């Protein structure tokens, strides 16, 4: 191998290495942008353990996922109010009064539905909202029961 070939190979390695680093940074950045926010101002973010305590106390849970997901499984007793169709102030007020506590959830940290719904509820004047960011995926992972609706 000639000296000029060695120089070209080393230059190509440096370029490829730089491109890989840029690609890695891009993937990590875009992945982080798709995560649900950790907190919603005006609401209390809760863990799965806290969600289970609130469930055991009889708090109202609101599932904001689509109907198909809700039918497959949901937290027992949860109300279905999909963020994409039907989540509005009037429908929410039929489930829970503005001063009553409610837990809003969806599929977990990759699902933006619960954060959007929580933000809307706060903006409409609800004052006792629990944002369950970890959602039904973590609920199931912890071994808690779910309910299905068979067609």
Structural overview:
This protein folds into two domains: 1-33; 44-141, Rhodanese-like domain (Oxidized Rhodanese, domain 1, 3-Layer(aba) Sandwich), CATH 3.40.250. 47% of the residues lie in helices and 11% in strands. It contains six helices and five strands. The chain starts with a helix and ends in a 10-residue tail after the last helix.
Quickly list its features.
151 residues, elongated, Oxidized Rhodanese, domain 1, five-stranded parallel β-sheet, 5 strands, alpha/beta
Q: CATH topology of the largest domain, what is it called?
A: Oxidized Rhodanese, domain 1
Terminal residue distance: 70 Å
Which strand-content bin applies to the residues?
Answer: 5-15%
The helicity comes to 40-55%
Q: Taking Cα atoms only, what radius of gyration do you get, to the nearest Å? A: 22 Å
Describe the biggest sheet?
Answer: 5 strands, parallel
Mean pLDDT over the full residue set: 87
Can you count the helices?
6
Structural class: alpha/beta
Low-confidence stretches: 27-31
CATH class of the largest domain: Alpha Beta
- SSE topology string: HEHEHEHEHEH
């Amino acid at each position: 191998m000639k000296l000029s070939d060695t120089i070209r190979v080393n230059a190509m390695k440096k370029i490829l290495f730089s491109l890989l680093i840029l690609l890695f940074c891009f993937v990590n950045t875009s992945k982080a942008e798709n995560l649900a926010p950790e907190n919603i101002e005006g609401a209390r973010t809760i863990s799965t353990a806290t969600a289970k305590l609130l469930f055991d106390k009889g708090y109202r849970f609101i599932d904001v996922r689509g109907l198909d997901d809700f039918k497959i499984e949901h937290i027992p007793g949860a109300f279905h109010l999909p963020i994409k169709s039907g989540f509005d102030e009037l429908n929410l007020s039929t489930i829970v009064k503005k001063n009553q506590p409610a837990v809003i959830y969806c599929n977990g940290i990759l699902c933006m539905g619960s954060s959007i719904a929580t933000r809307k509820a706060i903006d409409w004047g609800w004052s006792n909202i629990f944002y369950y960011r970890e959602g039904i995926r973590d609920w199931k992972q912890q071994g808690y029961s779910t309910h299905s609706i068979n067609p």
